[in-house]
Every structure is written in structure tokens, then in C-alpha cells.
């Protein structure tokens, strides 16, 4: 694989941190994703994130019809171990998920505790598209006034996310990616307004 696990991953990491600290900022990681030449059953950018986030100290879960294949590739790439969704540190929900599978997974993942809020899951979601737009209004830390985005993902994931993030600092962080190598971060502190309703 042409991806440089030092320099390319460092560049990707800086972009992800920037997006996480500025919710609503859509970042493009085309340069890094283009260097992934594996057919692992997921987007190239998903593998970049796996290489960046996973190591032998954390666990992961793949939600996909190709779960076994993608899990094997991620394990070989990172040496991280697969685990159940309820215990995994990182959960990868791939593009071939069932219609409301994201919402179901969000109900099951760990949200940390008041003593250890960091012991929670980060969810990486492959979306049909992540773009600037007006479907969702984002407010909260890292946002000057409001940011507006469109995220094409089916199901009631936003309502479930609100429930899981209701007892701050507990909660889950979401990272959305699409096939055009766009990335959007929604940390637990971000509030979402959709069609006039706070979610």
C-alpha cells in the first residue's frame, strides 16, 4: 500500500483533529485516501482512519454485510482486536448497513461513565454524502454561531444520539465519511437542529 504510515497518517490526523475541534467543518482527505489500494469492503478513507485510530491497545467492531472480510483487513493493518459493539472503542458502520442499523448500534455502544467519560465509543459512519447544506444546523463549542451541513444517512440516528449524549460528559463521538473522501466530525458537545427541532 502506498500510504505512508508516518507522514500521511500524521497529515490525516491533523485534519481530523481540526474537524473535531470545529464541528461542521468538512475536510477532504483525498490525498491520503488515494494512496489506499486495498479492496477491504469499505471506503479508502475508512481504512485511513483505522490506521490512524487503532493499535494493539484498543478494540473495534465492523458493522457490515462484509464484516468478516473488513475485520480481517483492519486487524492485519493495525493489530487491533475485534470485539462486540457494546465493548468496542471504535465502531465502523459501513455503507452497506441496513436502513436503521446506525440507530440500533448507537443504542448499544458504550458511553463512558461520570468517572471515566473517555471510556466511550467513537463511531465512524460511511454516509452516501457529506456536504455543506441546510438540513442540519450545528451549534456548540468550536462553532462561532452556527454551521450548516447535509449528511445522507438513513434512520433515526439523530434522536438516538441525543439520548446517548444527554448526560454530559458521557456520550459518543461521530465521524462521517463519504466515497468522495469528505469527513465531518460531530463530537458529543455539538447540538443539532433539524427542521426546527433540536436533536
Written account of the structure:
By secondary structure, the chain is of the alpha/beta class. The chain is built from six helices and eleven strands. It has helices at residues 7-21, 30-33, 44-53, 67-78, 101-108, 157-164, and strands spanning 27-28, 59-63, 81-82, 90-93, 122-126, 130-139, 147-151, 173-177, 182-186, 191-194, 197-198. It has a seven-stranded mixed beta sheet with strand order 1-9-8-5-4-2-3, sandwiched between helices. Strand 2 (59-63), helix 4 and strand 3 form a beta-alpha-beta unit. The protein is globular and about 40 Å long. The relative contact order is 0.18. The mean pLDDT is 94.
Q: Short description, anyone?
A:
The protein has 199 residues and is an alpha/beta fold. Helices cover 29% and strands 25% of the residues.
Amino acid at each position: 500500500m502506498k500510504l505512508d504510515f508516518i507522514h500521511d497518517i500524521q497529515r490525516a490526523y491533523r485534519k481530523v483533529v481540526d474537524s473535531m475541534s470545529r464541528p461542521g467543518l468538512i475536510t477532504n482527505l483525498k490525498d491520503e485516501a488515494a494512496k489506499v489500494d486495498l479492496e477491504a469492503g469499505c471506503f479508502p478513507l475508512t481504512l485511513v482512519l483505522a490506521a490512524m485510530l487503532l493499535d494493539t491497545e484498543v478494540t473495534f467492531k465492523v458493522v457490515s454485510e462484509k464484516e468478516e472480510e473488513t475485520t480481517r483487513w483492519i486487524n492485519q493493518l493495525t493489530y487491533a482486536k475485534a470485539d462486540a459493539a457494546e465493548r468496542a472503542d471504535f465502531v465502523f458502520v459501513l455503507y452497506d448497513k441496513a436502513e436503521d442499523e446506525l440507530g440500533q448500534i448507537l443504542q448499544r455502544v458504550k458511553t463512558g461513565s461520570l468517572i471515566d467519560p473517555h471510556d466511550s465509543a467513537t463511531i465512524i459512519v460511511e454516509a452516501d454524502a457529506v456536504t455543506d447544506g441546510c438540513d442540519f444546523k450545528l451549534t456548540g463549542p468550536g462553532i462561532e454561531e452556527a454551521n450548516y451541513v447535509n449528511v445522507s444517512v438513513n434512520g433515526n440516528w439523530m434522536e438516538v444520539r441525543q439520548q446517548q449524549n444527554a448526560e454530559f460528559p458521557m456520550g459518543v463521538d461521530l465521524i462521517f465519511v463519504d466515497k468522495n473522501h469528505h469527513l465531518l466530525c460531530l463530537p458529543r458537545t455539538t447540538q443539532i437542529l433539524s427542521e426546527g427541532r433540536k436533536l
